Amino acid sequence: MAHSNEDTMCRAVEMARLALTTSAYASEWHRSAAEVTAQTWETIPFLDKERLIASVTDEDPFGGRLSVSCSELAWIFAAPGPVYMPYTAGDMDRVAAAYGAALGSCGLGDEDIVDQTLLYNWVIAASMVDRGLRSLGCAVVPGGPGGTEQHADHIRRSGITGIVAMPSFLEHLLEVLGDRPHRLRKAVIMGELRDADAKTRIEERYGVWAREFYGVGDVGAVAYECALGQGMHLRRDLLIEFVDPATGGIKEPAKGDPAEIVVTDFARRAMPIIRLRSGDLIDELITDPCACGNPAPRIPRIIGRANDITKVRGMFIIPQLVTRTLGQFGIEDEHCIVIDRTEGRDLIEVLIVGAHRGNVPVVAAAVSDALRIRCDVRFVDSLPSGSGLLRDRRAFQNQ
């Protein structure tokens, strides 16, 4: 079922018809613009991260999905894969406005000094969070990721009252701050899977009011909490569907029977995103009215991923990139990627079956560069139990 009204569906159809002007969508859909209607919507093929990556070539970095001339582009972001994400100036304004609305709903405003801790380089999130915060009148401290002690020092010295951060980094930062006096009272958490108790720990252990934001890299803001903090309201200016992660059939999420979020975006006219399977799973859709007055349905936290691509510290971990990088060093042995969480920090290790050989630090540096996140490499006699190239031990669904 698509959570939309008539106007939303009309806009989705309009964007899908725009998408058909591109070579990639035209070849994948095998239909005319006239055949794209509200009644035929569910017959439109899904888009996913793997397809976006596969369509990128040296000759066409946008994978045949660019619907404007290059002269109209204002920004191009790059995500691991690689996936290149072009935007016109108008696209950027619309995406930034959505971020501003989301961050305002989460409780940030013109009296706040906000430490923005997401990555500014290459990917879109930090740039849009920064613009969204400034649209609310916030003073922005562009801290970026890492440098925990430096963040802690600036929080104490500059009167920072709010922070935008991944939950694992925020908890680590608050632990480092300890009992030192500070004015930090508000947090917007986003960008990674979290366990069920993370918000409660942040609020009760550290006295910081935490609200959650959910975004999809190729779309931007999708859902966000209000002051009441009882689930993230779905944006009403997106077309959002829920599907069975195994079959792709339309279904509602339920406890013990999660559904995958599918999004159609109206903001990105430079590169239309139609029926994108996010890979993110939820097990509940809250339709009861929220006392804040926002009528949009709400979703709880993301409980897991539907495929072999996951997120660590806001970055997609794509197993095929690891395989490709190892191949550059002549390493074609069986291997896997193990992700674990220790003391609130996500750790990545690439395990390779076979005798130790080559310059392991150089291989580790190359893999880290490909993924844009630090990871270790180790040769082992055998791989741990499990299947697939990715072994995610964080097990958020069970926490």
What do you see in this structure?
The chain has 2 domains: 88-307, Rossmann fold (3-Layer(aba) Sandwich), CATH 3.40.50.12780; 318-398, GMP Synthetase, Chain A, domain 3, CATH 3.30.300.30. It has helices spanning 6-19, 23-29, 49-55, 89-105, 125-135, 148-157, 167-177, 198-206, 319-327, 360-371; strands at 2-3, 73-79, 83-88, 113-116, 139-141, 162-165, 186-189, 209-216, 220-224, 232-234, 239-243, 259-264, 276-282, 298-299, 304-305, 310-312, 315-317, 335-342, 345-353, 376-380, 390-392. Helices cover 27% and strands 25% of the residues. By secondary structure, it is an alpha/beta fold. The chain has 10 helices and 21 strands. The mean pLDDT is 91. The chain is globular and about 60 Å long. The two termini are 28 Å apart. It has an 8-stranded mixed β-sheet with strand order 5-4-6-7-8-9-10-14, with helices on both faces. Strands 1-11-12-13-15 form a 5-stranded antiparallel β-sheet.
Summarize the structure in short.
By secondary structure, this protein is an alpha/beta fold. It has helices at 6-19, 23-29, 49-55, 89-105, 125-135, 148-157, 167-177, 198-206, 319-327, 360-371, and strands at 2-3, 73-79, 83-88, 113-116, 139-141, 162-165, 186-189, 209-216, 220-224, 232-234, 239-243, 259-264, 276-282, 298-299, 304-305, 310-312, 315-317, 335-342, 345-353, 376-380, 390-392.
